[in-house]
Protein backbone atom coordinates (compact mmCIF):
# COMPACT_ATOMS: atom_id res chain seq x y z
CA UNK A 1 0.00 0.00 0.00
CA UNK A 2 2.75 2.42 -0.95
CA UNK A 3 2.75 4.95 -3.77
CA UNK A 4 4.72 4.28 -6.88
CA UNK A 5 7.51 6.51 -8.14
CA UNK A 6 6.76 10.15 -8.81
CA UNK A 7 6.21 10.59 -12.53
CA UNK A 8 6.87 14.03 -14.05
CA UNK A 9 4.32 15.41 -16.51
CA UNK A 10 6.52 17.21 -19.09
CA UNK A 11 3.73 19.36 -20.50
CA UNK A 12 2.85 21.03 -17.21
CA UNK A 13 5.55 20.19 -14.70
CA UNK A 14 3.00 18.33 -12.58
CA UNK A 15 3.70 15.04 -10.87
CA UNK A 16 1.59 12.08 -9.83
CA UNK A 17 1.62 8.80 -7.98
CA UNK A 18 -0.81 5.92 -8.05
CA UNK A 19 -1.60 4.71 -4.55
CA UNK A 20 -2.61 1.07 -4.28
CA UNK A 21 -5.68 0.80 -2.07
CA UNK A 22 -7.47 -2.17 -0.51
CA UNK A 23 -10.85 -3.13 -1.93
CA UNK A 24 -13.73 -1.40 -0.20
CA UNK A 25 -11.83 1.70 0.92
CA UNK A 26 -14.40 4.48 1.31
CA UNK A 27 -12.35 7.38 0.00
CA UNK A 28 -15.18 9.88 0.17
CA UNK A 29 -16.09 9.32 3.82
CA UNK A 30 -12.47 8.98 4.86
CA UNK A 31 -11.68 12.42 3.42
CA UNK A 32 -14.93 14.11 4.40
CA UNK A 33 -13.91 14.03 8.06
CA UNK A 34 -11.18 16.57 7.22
CA UNK A 35 -13.40 19.02 5.37
CA UNK A 36 -14.89 21.77 7.52
CA UNK A 37 -18.32 22.01 5.94
CA UNK A 38 -19.49 21.98 2.34
CA UNK A 39 -18.06 25.45 1.68
CA UNK A 40 -14.54 24.75 2.97
CA UNK A 41 -12.33 26.64 0.47
CA UNK A 42 -9.47 24.15 0.94
CA UNK A 43 -11.51 21.24 -0.45
CA UNK A 44 -13.56 20.71 -3.60
CA UNK A 45 -15.52 17.66 -4.74
CA UNK A 46 -15.58 17.76 -8.57
CA UNK A 47 -16.51 15.29 -11.34
CA UNK A 48 -12.79 14.86 -12.08
CA UNK A 49 -11.86 14.04 -8.49
CA UNK A 50 -11.39 15.42 -4.99
CA UNK A 51 -9.24 18.56 -4.86
CA UNK A 52 -7.34 19.75 -1.81
CA UNK A 53 -5.22 22.88 -1.32
CA UNK A 54 -2.62 22.59 1.42
CA UNK A 55 0.92 23.36 2.56
CA UNK A 56 4.04 21.47 3.33
CA UNK A 57 6.14 23.86 5.35
CA UNK A 58 6.22 27.15 3.46
CA UNK A 59 5.38 25.48 0.15
CA UNK A 60 1.83 25.52 -1.23
CA UNK A 61 0.38 22.63 -3.21
CA UNK A 62 -2.78 21.40 -4.86
CA UNK A 63 -3.68 17.73 -4.70
CA UNK A 64 -6.25 15.94 -6.83
CA UNK A 65 -7.37 12.40 -6.00
CA UNK A 66 -9.09 10.25 -8.63
CA UNK A 67 -10.18 6.61 -8.30
CA UNK A 68 -8.46 4.32 -10.78
CA UNK A 69 -8.36 0.57 -11.16
CA UNK A 70 -6.74 -0.87 -8.04
CA UNK A 71 -6.28 2.39 -6.22
CA UNK A 72 -6.27 6.18 -6.35
CA UNK A 73 -4.28 8.43 -8.64
CA UNK A 74 -2.88 11.48 -6.88
CA UNK A 75 -1.80 14.49 -8.99
CA UNK A 76 -0.09 17.49 -7.44
CA UNK A 77 0.90 20.99 -8.48
CA UNK A 78 2.98 23.66 -6.83
CA UNK A 79 6.27 23.78 -4.91
CA UNK A 80 4.87 21.51 -2.20
CA UNK A 81 3.82 18.80 -4.67
CA UNK A 82 6.45 16.24 -3.67
CA UNK A 83 5.48 16.55 -0.01
CA UNK A 84 1.76 16.08 -0.54
CA UNK A 85 2.33 13.13 -2.86
CA UNK A 86 4.51 11.46 -0.25
CA UNK A 87 1.72 11.99 2.29
CA UNK A 88 -1.09 10.76 0.01
CA UNK A 89 -1.28 7.25 1.53
CA UNK A 90 -1.74 8.75 4.99
CA UNK A 91 -4.40 11.13 3.72
CA UNK A 92 -6.28 8.15 2.32
CA UNK A 93 -6.08 6.39 5.67
CA UNK A 94 -3.65 3.71 4.56
CA UNK A 95 -1.44 4.24 7.62
CA UNK A 96 -4.41 3.63 9.89
CA UNK A 97 -3.69 0.42 11.79
CA UNK A 98 -6.88 -1.37 12.84
CA UNK A 99 -5.08 -4.34 14.37
CA UNK A 100 -6.22 -4.99 17.90
CA UNK A 101 -9.56 -3.26 17.42
CA UNK A 102 -12.10 -5.45 19.23
CA UNK A 103 -15.31 -4.26 17.61
CA UNK A 104 -17.10 -7.40 18.83
CA UNK A 105 -17.10 -6.16 22.44
CA UNK A 106 -20.40 -4.37 21.84
CA UNK A 107 -23.02 -5.29 19.22
CA UNK A 108 -23.61 -1.63 18.26
CA UNK A 109 -19.90 -1.08 17.60
CA UNK A 110 -19.62 -4.40 15.78
CA UNK A 111 -22.55 -3.51 13.52
CA UNK A 112 -21.17 -0.04 12.78
CA UNK A 113 -17.78 -1.55 11.98
CA UNK A 114 -19.30 -4.05 9.55
CA UNK A 115 -21.48 -1.44 7.87
CA UNK A 116 -18.76 1.20 7.58
CA UNK A 117 -15.66 -0.97 7.27
CA UNK A 118 -14.38 1.18 4.40
CA UNK A 119 -13.82 4.27 6.56
CA UNK A 120 -10.22 4.84 7.62
CA UNK A 121 -8.80 7.51 9.90
CA UNK A 122 -7.16 10.01 7.57
CA UNK A 123 -3.90 11.71 8.43
CA UNK A 124 -4.29 15.29 7.20
CA UNK A 125 -0.57 16.04 7.50
CA UNK A 126 -0.76 19.84 7.76
CA UNK A 127 -1.08 20.59 11.47
CA UNK A 128 -1.59 24.36 11.52
CA UNK A 129 -4.99 24.50 9.73
CA UNK A 130 -6.23 21.81 12.12
CA UNK A 131 -5.20 24.04 15.03
CA UNK A 132 -7.07 27.04 13.61
CA UNK A 133 -10.26 25.16 12.79
CA UNK A 134 -10.30 23.45 16.18
CA UNK A 135 -9.94 26.77 18.00
CA UNK A 136 -12.64 28.37 15.83
CA UNK A 137 -14.98 25.52 16.84
CA UNK A 138 -14.56 26.16 20.57
CA UNK A 139 -17.78 27.16 22.36
CA UNK A 140 -19.83 27.88 19.23
CA UNK A 141 -22.28 26.10 16.96
CA UNK A 142 -20.38 24.15 14.32
CA UNK A 143 -22.04 25.89 11.37
CA UNK A 144 -20.86 29.28 12.68
CA UNK A 145 -17.28 28.08 13.10
CA UNK A 146 -17.25 26.71 9.57
CA UNK A 147 -18.59 30.00 8.22
CA UNK A 148 -15.77 31.85 10.03
CA UNK A 149 -13.16 29.50 8.53
CA UNK A 150 -14.69 29.88 5.07
CA UNK A 151 -14.65 33.67 5.18
CA UNK A 152 -11.15 34.03 6.58
CA UNK A 153 -9.54 31.55 4.19
CA UNK A 154 -11.39 33.00 1.19
CA UNK A 155 -10.19 36.52 2.08
CA UNK A 156 -6.65 35.79 3.22
CA UNK A 157 -5.69 32.48 1.65
CA UNK A 158 -3.67 31.88 -1.51
CA UNK A 159 -5.18 30.70 -4.78
CA UNK A 160 -4.37 27.03 -5.20
CA UNK A 161 -1.63 26.34 -7.78
CA UNK A 162 -2.25 24.42 -10.98
CA UNK A 163 -5.54 23.91 -12.84
CA UNK A 164 -7.55 23.85 -9.61
CA UNK A 165 -11.18 24.95 -9.26
CA UNK A 166 -11.30 28.74 -9.13
CA UNK A 167 -12.57 28.95 -5.54
CA UNK A 168 -9.93 26.58 -4.11
CA UNK A 169 -7.63 28.31 -1.63
CA UNK A 170 -4.59 27.37 0.43
CA UNK A 171 -5.17 28.44 4.04
CA UNK A 172 -2.87 31.23 5.24
CA UNK A 173 0.32 30.36 7.12
CA UNK A 174 0.59 31.08 10.84
CA UNK A 175 2.25 34.47 10.34
CA UNK A 176 -0.79 35.74 8.40
CA UNK A 177 -3.22 34.57 11.08
CA UNK A 178 -1.07 36.29 13.71
CA UNK A 179 -1.26 39.61 11.85
CA UNK A 180 -5.00 39.67 11.10
CA UNK A 181 -6.54 42.89 12.42
CA UNK A 182 -9.34 42.73 14.93
CA UNK A 183 -12.00 43.82 12.44
CA UNK A 184 -11.26 40.80 10.24
CA UNK A 185 -11.87 38.46 13.15
CA UNK A 186 -15.05 40.22 14.22
CA UNK A 187 -16.31 40.40 10.65
CA UNK A 188 -15.95 36.62 10.52
CA UNK A 189 -17.84 36.21 13.80
CA UNK A 190 -14.79 35.25 15.87
CA UNK A 191 -14.69 36.63 19.41
CA UNK A 192 -11.61 37.92 21.21
CA UNK A 193 -11.03 34.75 23.21
CA UNK A 194 -10.73 32.55 20.14
CA UNK A 195 -8.80 35.04 18.00
CA UNK A 196 -6.34 35.62 20.86
CA UNK A 197 -5.85 31.86 21.18
CA UNK A 198 -5.07 31.54 17.47
CA UNK A 199 -2.56 34.39 17.70
CA UNK A 200 -0.86 32.83 20.73
CA UNK A 201 -0.68 29.49 18.93
CA UNK A 202 0.67 31.17 15.79
CA UNK A 203 3.66 32.47 17.76
CA UNK A 204 4.79 28.87 18.40
CA UNK A 205 3.30 27.19 15.32
CA UNK A 206 6.74 25.92 14.30
CA UNK A 207 6.54 23.51 17.26
CA UNK A 208 3.38 21.82 15.97
CA UNK A 209 4.85 19.28 13.56
CA UNK A 210 3.32 16.32 11.77
CA UNK A 211 6.28 14.09 12.65
CA UNK A 212 5.45 14.22 16.37
CA UNK A 213 3.58 11.54 18.24
CA UNK A 214 -0.01 12.35 19.15
CA UNK A 215 0.96 12.50 22.83
CA UNK A 216 3.75 14.99 22.24
CA UNK A 217 1.74 17.16 19.87
CA UNK A 218 -1.14 17.28 22.36
CA UNK A 219 1.30 18.23 25.14
CA UNK A 220 2.78 21.05 23.10
CA UNK A 221 -0.62 22.35 22.06
CA UNK A 222 -1.80 22.52 25.65
CA UNK A 223 1.05 24.81 26.64
CA UNK A 224 -0.84 27.53 24.73
CA UNK A 225 -3.37 29.34 26.94
CA UNK A 226 -6.85 28.67 25.56
CA UNK A 227 -6.02 25.22 24.19
CA UNK A 228 -7.14 22.29 26.32
CA UNK A 229 -7.77 18.56 25.90
CA UNK A 230 -10.76 18.99 23.57
CA UNK A 231 -8.88 21.17 21.10
CA UNK A 232 -5.75 19.01 21.28
CA UNK A 233 -7.78 15.87 20.53
CA UNK A 234 -9.46 17.57 17.57
CA UNK A 235 -6.03 18.44 16.16
CA UNK A 236 -4.37 15.07 16.68
CA UNK A 237 -7.37 13.19 15.29
CA UNK A 238 -7.44 15.25 12.08
CA UNK A 239 -3.78 16.06 11.47
CA UNK A 240 -2.21 12.80 12.68
CA UNK A 241 -5.09 10.33 12.33
CA UNK A 242 -4.82 9.57 16.06
CA UNK A 243 -6.97 6.46 16.60
CA UNK A 244 -7.30 7.02 20.36
CA UNK A 245 -8.11 10.74 20.59
CA UNK A 246 -11.17 11.55 22.71
CA UNK A 247 -12.70 15.04 22.65
CA UNK A 248 -13.38 15.45 26.36
CA UNK A 249 -15.47 18.58 26.88
CA UNK A 250 -17.65 18.12 23.82
CA UNK A 251 -21.35 18.89 24.33
CA UNK A 252 -22.44 16.22 21.85
CA UNK A 253 -20.12 13.19 22.00
CA UNK A 254 -20.86 11.96 25.55
CA UNK A 255 -24.58 11.86 24.78
CA UNK A 256 -23.93 10.07 21.49
CA UNK A 257 -21.78 7.41 23.16
CA UNK A 258 -24.18 6.98 26.07
CA UNK A 259 -27.26 6.80 23.89
CA UNK A 260 -25.69 4.45 21.30
CA UNK A 261 -24.19 2.02 23.82
CA UNK A 262 -26.65 2.14 26.73
CA UNK A 263 -29.73 4.04 25.57
CA UNK A 264 -29.08 6.73 28.21
CA UNK A 265 -27.32 10.07 28.36
CA UNK A 266 -23.72 10.21 29.57
CA UNK A 267 -21.28 12.85 30.76
CA UNK A 268 -17.54 12.94 30.06
CA UNK A 269 -16.75 10.50 32.86
CA UNK A 270 -19.43 8.12 31.64
CA UNK A 271 -18.20 8.38 28.06
CA UNK A 272 -14.63 7.55 29.09
CA UNK A 273 -15.85 4.57 31.09
CA UNK A 274 -17.89 3.28 28.16
CA UNK A 275 -14.98 3.73 25.75
CA UNK A 276 -12.41 2.11 28.07
CA UNK A 277 -12.65 -1.39 26.48
CA UNK A 278 -11.39 0.13 23.22
CA UNK A 279 -8.35 1.91 24.67
CA UNK A 280 -6.08 2.65 21.73
CA UNK A 281 -9.01 2.85 19.32
CA UNK A 282 -11.41 5.21 21.07
CA UNK A 283 -11.44 7.78 18.24
CA UNK A 284 -12.26 4.95 15.85
CA UNK A 285 -15.29 4.05 17.97
CA UNK A 286 -16.39 7.70 18.05
CA UNK A 287 -16.13 7.98 14.26
CA UNK A 288 -18.07 4.77 13.75
CA UNK A 289 -20.82 5.80 16.16
CA UNK A 290 -21.10 9.28 14.62
CA UNK A 291 -21.31 7.79 11.13
CA UNK A 292 -23.79 5.06 12.05
CA UNK A 293 -26.06 7.27 14.17
CA UNK A 294 -25.87 10.57 12.32
CA UNK A 295 -29.16 12.43 12.76
CA UNK A 296 -30.55 9.85 15.20
CA UNK A 297 -29.44 11.39 18.50
CA UNK A 298 -32.29 12.66 20.71
CA UNK A 299 -32.34 16.44 21.11
CA UNK A 300 -30.29 17.05 24.26
CA UNK A 301 -29.20 20.54 23.22
CA UNK A 302 -27.69 22.43 20.28
CA UNK A 303 -25.49 20.05 18.31
CA UNK A 304 -22.02 21.27 17.57
CA UNK A 305 -21.82 23.63 20.57
CA UNK A 306 -18.58 23.03 22.43
CA UNK A 307 -17.76 23.34 26.08
CA UNK A 308 -15.03 25.72 27.19
CA UNK A 309 -11.62 24.19 26.58
CA UNK A 310 -10.26 22.49 29.67
CA UNK A 311 -6.95 23.93 30.86
Query: What about the largest sheet?
Result: 6 strands, antiparallel
In CATH terms, what is the fold-level topology of the domain at 7-96?
TATA-Binding Protein
Structural class: alpha+beta
- The secondary-structure element order is EEHEEEEHHHHHEEHHHHHHHH
Q: Count the beta strands.
A: 8
Biggest β-sheet: strands ordered side by side in the sheet: 1-2-6-5-4-3
The average pLDDT score comes to 91
Helical content, roughly?
25-40%
C-alpha-based Rg, rounded: 19 Å
| CATH C-level name of the domain at 7-96 | Alpha Beta
What does this structure look like?
This protein is of the alpha+beta class and 311 residues long. Among the domains are: 7-96, TATA-Binding Protein; 127-212, Orthogonal Bundle (Endonuclease III, domain 1). It is 39% helix and 14% strand. It contains 14 helices and eight strands. It has helices spanning 27-32, 81-86, 88-91, 107-115, 127-136, 142-156, 174-179, 182-187, 192-203, 214-221, 229-239, 253-262, 268-275, 282-292; strands at 7-9, 14-20, 43-46, 49-56, 59-68, 71-77, 158-159, 169-170. The strands form two sheets. Strands 1-2-6-5-4-3 form a six-stranded antiparallel sheet. It has a two-stranded antiparallel ribbon with strand order 7-8. A hairpin with a 2-residue loop joins strand 4 (49-56) and strand 5. The protein is globular and about 45 Å long. The N and C termini lie far apart (40 Å).
Amino acid sequence: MHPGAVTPEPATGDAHVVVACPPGLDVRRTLLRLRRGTGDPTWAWQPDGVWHATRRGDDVATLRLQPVTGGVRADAWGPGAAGVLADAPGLLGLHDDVSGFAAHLHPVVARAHRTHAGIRLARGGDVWPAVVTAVLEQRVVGVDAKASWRRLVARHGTRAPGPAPTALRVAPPARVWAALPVWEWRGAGVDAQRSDTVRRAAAVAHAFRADLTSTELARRLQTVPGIGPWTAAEVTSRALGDPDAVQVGDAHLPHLVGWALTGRRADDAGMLELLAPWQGHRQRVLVLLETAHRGQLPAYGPRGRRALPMR
